Amino acid sequence: MKHIKYIAFALLLPLLAGCYADKGNYTYKDLASVEVKVTGIESAYKVKSMGTLEISPVISPDNADYEYYWGVYPAGSLYIDKMIIISRERNLKYSVQLKPGNYQLRFYAKDKQTGVFSYTEYDLTVETDIVSGWWLLKEVNGNTDIDIHTPKHVFPNRLAEVSGKSLEGAPRGFLFYDSWLRLDSVGEGSDKKYTNTPTPSLFVASDKDLKVLDYYTTETIGTFESLFKLNSSVQKKPEDIFFATNYISLVNNGRIHSLRTIGQVATSFFGEAFVGDYKLSPHRAVAFSWQPILYDESKSSFCSYARIDNSLQYFKDPAPHKVNNLNADLLFFNHRKMLGVPEWAYALLKSKTTSEHYLYKFGSMFDRVGMKLLQVDVLRDDKKMFHADRYAYTKGYNQTFFSIGNVIWSCEFAGFTEKEQLTVPAGETITLIETLVPDVPSGTQAPVYFVLGTQTGNRYKFSVYNVQAGNIAERVALYEGEGNVKRAMFIEMKDNRIWQTLLD
Q: How many Å apart are CA 168 and CA 290, to the nearest integer?
């Protein structure tokens, strides 16, 4: 434990006075026999965020007139300006407003008559019950809320609990990111001012609204209006939210808006929709280092976006195949958020005029000519996956899980072999299937999870299964609650970093 002790004088004493050694625990003396002794403070404290920290030090002599302060600053910080004063009273009673992490707590006492002062520092750890757990985006009573299941606690209806009400509208999507740029103001012409928001944040979208939550407290730090502050005429109709290439992007009423996460200058923001006549599909392929591959339903064409001029970018047809004017509906695209660059992405399309289906296999990155289209399979035989209610692609096994009614199937793309995997009990309705991979330290093997949400009446069951050799294996967790689950994410704070699951 680190305990720093100092002594100073408001008036300089003669240099020949010298100095005295420590007389014991927090004991100080000067040549005039002025002694300050502090007891009753532990060497280290742990406290919950939003909890109360109470310390009552004993100081002698007790008949002196002292000036006090209690200060806190992040552990490891080299700058005194990082310290905040949390009290100027002798006895500390502090409702902890700090984010979880490690801090230094400083107690300062100064004898007003002699000018002698001293301070000591102590280790302070701010903890939270929401350190590790499953965050479930759900619909409850027609609105959007979040349940958080940790190993020891359940935090139901977290939005309503913290802000007083759930988010209006049905759930559409959510994502976690650790920082983003907030638009503060706009000057003449295109002069925009941005500030970094270095707060781990959860973006939650319903079909009627959008909120940005502080991960640590789940308090609201951003709204649809604040993110769209330059364009009040934008209709609130969020459809999904995703991350790609340093941008958080919102699909709103079929159009795309972007919010930059790094850099000094943001070339686009939620207040400006990308220009053009288009309507985006809810399915897409995205990754940390990708330009996202999108699908314009109005043109039946694959596209991406060019942030320089805030427009969509359409590709030349890579002979002998086509990516434009396909006259086909997109059934699924392996919508994902991955660190690093995946090797490929699959899209399943259905012809609008024939019984044919097409499986497009894209490379992981665009080349100088355009997108890398590696393969197109024309599927004429009827497959169960063509009639799926939901899809959950898994890159690790080059296949998709899909549900029809109460049965979960898999289809392996190499030979289009379909296999029954799991049957949900009668009376339960499937509301969610996804495959998720935890973000883990480099060199660590990450498991693949298949997650399943079902609904009975106004209650949900959320199950987590291991995936082994492409098959749904044992169930490793089961949670229950009110409403029905639409999306899921595991978030864990460990080693001063926040880890999350990513779509496989």
A: 32
Rounded distance between C-alpha atoms, residue 239 and residue 171, angstroms: 9
Q: Is the per-residue pLDDT at 231 higher than 70?
A: no
Contact of 377 with 358, CB cutoff 8 Å: yes
Element (H, E) at 224: helix 224-227
pLDDT score, position 455 = 98
- Alpha carbon distances (Å) from 376 to 291, 348, 357: 21, 10, 10
* Maximum separation of any 2 CA atoms in the chain, in Å: 100
Dist CA 359 CA 351 (whole Å):
11
Answer with the residue of higher pLDDT: 204 or 118: 204
Instruction: Provide the pLDDT for residue 368.
Output: 46
Q: Which helix (H) or strand (E) holds 163?
A: helix 158-163
Q: Is the dihedral of CA 136, 137, 139, 145 positive or negative?
A: positive
For CA atoms 101, 102, 106, 107, give the dihedral sign: positive
**pLDDT tens digits along 290-343:** 678 899 999 999 998 866 667 888 888 988 899 999 999 999 987 665 555 556
CA distance 60 to 437: 58
Q: What are phi and psi of 80, to 5 degrees?
A: -65, -25
Q: Sorting pLDDT into bands at 50, 70 and 90, what band is 132?
A: confident
The pTM (predicted TM-score) of the whole model is 0.79
Cα–Cα nearest to 272, from 333, 324, 225, 228: 228
Instruction: Note the pLDDT of residue 34.
Output: 59
Burial class (CB within 10 angstroms; exposed 0-12, middle 13-18, buried 19+) of 410: buried
Strand locations in 65-190 (E):
66-74, 84-87, 92-95, 101-111, 117-127, 132-140, 143-149, 154-155, 171-177, 180-186
What contacts 454, CB < 8 A, 6 or more positions away? 424, 428, 429, 430, 431, 460, 461, 463
C-alpha distances out from residue 298 to 56, 242, 301, 311, 326, Å = 68, 21, 8, 16, 11
Tell me the three state secondary structure of residue 393: strand
> Residue type at 488?
A
Residues 405-426 have pLDDT tens digits of 999 999 999 889 999 999 999 9
Measured distance CA(396)–CA(402) in Å, rounded: 16
Assess contact for 180 and 246: CB atoms under 8 A. no
**What is the distance in angstroms between the CA of the first residue and the CA of the last residue of the chain?**
42
- Phi and psi at residue 184, in whole multiples of 5°? -90, -50
pLDDT band at 210, cuts 50/70/90? very high
Cβ atoms of 145 and 138 closer than 8 Å: yes
